[in-house]
Amino acid sequence: MMFSLKKGSIAPARWKWPHKTELPLTTKLLRDVPPEIELSDYRKLPSSGPDSPSGLLNDERLDSELIIDLDLFFERLYSYYCQKGLWCIIIKWIVELLYVIFMVGFIAFFLLYVDWDALGKAKCGVEAVELGEKPCDLPKEVIKQHPLVPFTIGKAIIIGSMVILTLYGLLNFLKFFVQLKNIVKIRHFYYNRLNVTDREIQTTPWPTILEKVVQLQKSQQLCVVKDLSAHDVVMRIMRKQNYLIAMLNKGVLAFSISSWVPGAGATVKSRITGKKNHLILPKILEWSLSWCIFQSMFDR
């Protein structure tokens, strides 16, 4: 059983059980063992009093606010490291936006404006000279002046795909500006608290970054509940993936399907029926588990 310690909470002096009779040995063991603390819930501590952050830091000045959600913070820290700095992230977003613009323009030009029937029948250049005809003006012959006339089902599908791509690019564009504030905060953390620049991130191994985070925990208390180790940081980053791996290992995602079904994996014996079921984890199921379960399990 896990207990969550919040701001201003005081641990009970003794354990109370609903039964009137208690075993002295059991009561003593339970009282001696401290409760396990859930680290996913944090609140900002008051700025005054002996338990304030200044007291925890031994009169050291706190330059930034305490981290409310360590799981999310370490995920962003690792994501920033994997993307190798702010300018690499900006270039990536620009390239993705240009890719969407290119795809929309490509679809519009080649599927709506180009008259492929006229292009096949057009006689220009050497072929027209051999036939004794006047060379045609290829742009006028091939490019449609009114691409949506007549409006057919095929053109409606093409326009629908262009609208979907445009909305996707617009959402990515807005998403970048929404996430830019958090990205700049992580960059500030790397520069000012870990003393690692974007250029150094290109060649610095991840274990070195972890070591700097652990050393920072000892001096500035990123986590005010307990001291963090490199293992704690990695486990927080991999927490959702570890739960998913555990579900696979326990056979939770094993179904009674045939082996010829695409995506069917190894067989796992069911504890209920005793039959062997095949593991399967398509992307849709993985995304559904991530958004519907894991995101809610490890939120603030």
Automatic annotation (TrEMBL):
PANTHER family: APG9 AUTOPHAGY 9, AUTOPHAGY-RELATED PROTEIN 9. GO terms for biological process: autophagy of mitochondrion; lipid transport; piecemeal microautophagy of the nucleus; protein localization to phagophore assembly site; reticulophagy. Phospholipid scramblase involved in autophagy. Cycles between the preautophagosomal structure/phagophore assembly site (PAS) and the cytoplasmic vesicle pool and supplies membrane for the growing autophagosome. Lipid scramblase activity plays a key role in preautophagosomal structure/phagophore assembly by distributing the phospholipids that arrive through ATG2 from the cytoplasmic to the luminal leaflet of the bilayer, thereby driving autophagosomal membrane expansion. Belongs to the ATG9 family. This is Autophagy-related protein 9. It comes from Zingiber officinale (Ginger). The chain crosses the membrane at residues 86-113, 156-178, 243-261. It is found in: Preautophagosomal structure membrane. Pfam families: ATG9 (PF04109). It is a multi-pass membrane protein. Its main location: membrane. GO terms for cellular component: autophagosome; phagophore assembly site membrane. Keywords: Autophagy, Lipid transport, Membrane, Transmembrane, Transmembrane helix, Transport.
